[in-house]
Specification:
Conserved Hypothetical Protein Mth637, Chain: A; 6-stranded mixed sheet; 6 strands; globular
Length: 97
Amino acid sequence: MLEVREREGTVMFSVRVQPRANKDEISGEIAGALKVRLRAPAVEDRANGALVEFLAQLLKTPRSAVRILGGERSRTKRIEIRGVTQQQILALLVRDA
């Protein structure tokens, strides 16, 4: 089950990134994290930028509202998004299932 924490207008959750995929997509949940496949390679911070852009687009929120709290150099990242709810994050799994 995806672990999403909501506090003071922000949500925090983990994301497991698979770089160099065929397309940008959410491919489910793995070990309590949202699994995201990205076309961007994991070099020169491109995958991190693509992740922020992809989540902002999906949730219809500005890029500035999406922040990587930890794991910049890891496949598993801790994400914080302002202005969205826990239900919106959980709905991403249902939408792409």
